């Protein structure tokens, strides 16, 4: 049974795999693959950096 299902996505059914990947990218990464990479990198960078207590710098309004 697993072979029957897998055969739909590889070999002669490679276009189904390609279409599925394309649809997933369009739905979950509307900004494209690089936008997704940037989002993931931002999540990792934010979780690594622990916010230190620094006084807020105030800039005068003009």
Give short descriptive properties of this protein.
3 helices, mainly alpha, 0% strand, 62 residues, single chain, elongated
Please describe what this structure looks like.
The longest helix has 16 residues, at 33-48. The protein is an all-alpha fold and 62 residues long. The chain has three helices and no strands. The protein has helices spanning 2-6, 14-28, 33-48. The protein is 58% helix and 0% strand. The chain has one domain.
Q: How many strand elements? A: 0
Q: List low-pLDDT spans.
A: none
For the CA atoms, what is the radius of gyration? 22 Å
Helix content: 55-70%
Number of domains: 1
How does the major sheet shape up?
none
Q: Which shape, going by the Cα principal axes?
A: elongated
Compressed to H and E, one letter per element, the order equals HHH
Structural class designation: mainly alpha
The number of helical elements comes to 3
Kindly state the mean pLDDT as a whole number?
79
